[in-house]
Amino acid sequence: MRRITFDLDVLRTFVTGVDLGSFAKAAERLGRSTSAVSAQLKKLEDQLGLPVLRKEGRGMVTTSAGESLLGYARRLLELNDEAATAVRGAELAGSVRLGMQEDFGEHILTEVLGRFARVHPRLRIEACVARNADLMAQLAAGRLELALAWHSDAAPPAPAPELARLTMRWIAAAGHGDWPAWGGHGEPLPLVMMDAPCMMRSAAIQALDRAGIAWRIAFSSPSLGGVWAAVAAGLGVTVRTAIGLPPALRALEQPGLPPLPVIGLRLHCGSDELSAPARRLHDIVLQAIAAHPATSAHGAAVA
């Protein structure tokens, strides 16, 4: 079998384009022309003898070969970048301020902090786990450099590129029966929700109202941990995405409850010109999100 030696610059273009959802944006990020990026992708496909992208609608999505390559490309680039930093001794120093939703605190934040600390032990990350409105307010006030936040289609457009689109899910305790047992005998469906304002709370109520299903707020909490505990205790159902779902809970798969909309995920930057530490952290967060099973299960859409 012919041995293939991949060009890391080509792999970086491929990964960046998938992560940003656009190869035009990747060209801008990497300081290349769009024609140069197209040539790199063609070179990659010629090396493999297989397409890594295919047309879908007005954009492109990764093929099965492209999706397989993506994971290996991330690992190669991560190892390359760690080696380059270690050999040069160019350790970043100082601090960078990152905010994210509670959904990402236990899994993605842990991975991001670990990867960053291995390469930049002198750099301190000031992490803030908060709700969407608070994150965006802190970003606008200059108290955060990066904020990983949900974005509803009903909200005003945001300059940050969309990293993923996840379907909201009805969630109940793992051992609890399916609906309509929840709302049987004419009882309204008990909801366990984050305190208002909350995009997922609003989506759940609007979906139930459109379907003509009675509901009541059985439990409301300012924290996601409180919501998870109340649902696990059997107080009602909630609405979130598959990210961060505790093992004691499950997503309901049944026709009785109305379908829910998708919600976007964006990494917002507090400035057009990020500091070197913030830029490095930005890239690590992008890689962690793209590699998460909930966001990579169906292939990444790119333009």
Automatic annotation (TrEMBL):
Positions of the HTH lysR-type domain: 6-63
Stored Pfam families: HTH_1 (PF00126), LysR_substrate (PF03466)
Swiss-Prot/TrEMBL keywords: DNA-binding, Transcription, Transcription regulation
Transcription in keyword set: yes
Molecular functions per Gene Ontology: DNA binding; DNA-binding transcription factor activity
Similarity comment: family membership: Belongs to the LysR transcriptional regulatory family.
Name under which the protein is recorded: LysR family transcriptional regulator
Organism placement in taxonomy: Bacteria, Pseudomonadati, Pseudomonadota, Betaproteobacteria, Burkholderiales
